Please model this.
Amino acid sequence: MDNVALTRPRENDSVVAHLAETMARQRAELAAIIGRHCRTDGSCETPIPGVALFRGSNTATPTCNVVPSVFAIMAQGAKRLQVGDDAYEYDARHYMISSVDLPISSRITCASAAEPYLGFALALDSRLLAALVSESSAALPPTRAGLPVDRGIAVGELSADIQGAALRLARLLDAPQDIPVLAPIIEKELLYRLLTGPLGTRLRQVVATGSHSHQIARAIDWLRSNLDRAASIDHLADLTNMSRSSLHHHFKTLTTMTPVQYQKQLRLQEARRLMLAEDHDAATAAHRVGYESPSQFSREYRRLFGRPPASDIAQLRQNGAQ
Model:
């Protein structure tokens, strides 16, 4: 008995060391794949539906955008995310999920030209998640309608199962002929690992009909589809079948913002996109997203992005040309 007891710590140490070595090899392979398919700083769409790759060698410039419901990991580097007043740090040993679309400010905190930040992201399809929750009900904890709402974003420790499924999906970039058949199968495995993992409750809540998270997600969809219309709390409360106070409370819990604050950030992000991608002037972009006062638009734009619209867009174009 004593001999058995003495050997157990050594056996456990060996298992832990083997797992750490396996995950390090996986990260190295994933980094090589991302490096081959995303050769310049920025984001790269891929032939795999919903999958995007990212590279960054600069830690100085923060970015602001609306991040959709997504799963994200990195093969090397580190990043800091800001959602409202909440900050999240993660690196190659962690993963991030967002269960709803969120306006996020992010900054790469560890990267260089020699060792760039290398990231992998999969957009999360709520219909696939809902179908998988239904299909896997026996393996998943039940999601009750009255459960408290969790934050719509979270960072967790990466497991070998989650990282391995992401790596297998990324490998298909080197075998594009296999993507139509194998990508849906591997994506389903990855989603299952996320649903059964430590952050899975957030994803299960937002697709569970009748849950508070699911109701707030409906309000978010309306706000995203109606940027040029004022956010009526009464209308959103009717849409979600909630009282005004309940809507306000659960919306802020999920997103860190009130509905009005959330819509303001969506409007400013979309106006920025219109000016940058479609060459609208500030007044036109402001009107397109529902602003009646150009001066109010300029003030709020500068507060969010740090510069007036014209100089911000000029700086973005200069950075993109470098």
Summary: The mean pLDDT is 90. The chain is about 50% helix and 20% strand. The first strand starts at residue 42 and ends at 45.
